[in-house]
Specification:
Elements: H1 6-32, H2 40-65, H3 69-73, H4 76-98, H5 101-104, H6 112-140
């Protein structure tokens, strides 16, 4: 693993963690009713920052794994990590379609049917981020 790329990968992870914290703080304020609606521009910026961080993590991850990708893919834990990364990409697209409801509707005005996709997207995101990080720690012992 090239050590010159690893710090960039970890820096992008830190960027993503901060972005998640900021986005989740906004979401929890909306859910608790402390904010009736969220600023669409801010929500959009946080979503774009998340994409930037995720794409940078994917790029630096590919650079680190490039020479040994075939060998790495033989490990079930690496395939699991790739599954979590794919889930993050798909879920990110899904969140992009859902996020603007926070700018036009209060959480309390949503029906249970309307809340379910929001909670599923949040759960999938949390599980996928933790799964990708956890599988990397187990696989590479970072």
């Amino acid at each position: 693993m090239p050590f010159s790329i690893l710090p960039l990968h970890l820096l992008s992870l830190a960027f993503v963690v901060v972005t998640i914290f900021l986005a989740d703080r906004e979401a929890f304020a909306w859910i608790r009713g402390r904010k009736i609606t969220l600023d669409a521009v801010r929500v959009g910026k946080l979503h774009r920052r998340m994409w930037l961080g995720l794409l940078f993590m994917i790029a630096t991850g590919l650079l680190m794994a490039w020479e040994n990708f075939g060998a790495l893919f033989a490990f079930p834990l690496f395939r699991l990590k790739m599954f979590f990364v794919a889930a993050l990409i798909i879920n990110g697209l899904f969140i992009g379609k859902l996020m603007y409801v926070t700018a036009v509707r209060s959480y309390s005005s949503l029906s249970t049917q309307e809340k379910i996709p929001l909670f599923l997207a949040g759960a999938i995101s949390a599980i996928s981020w933790l799964g990708a990080a956890g599988s990397a720690l187990l696989l590479f012992g970072l």
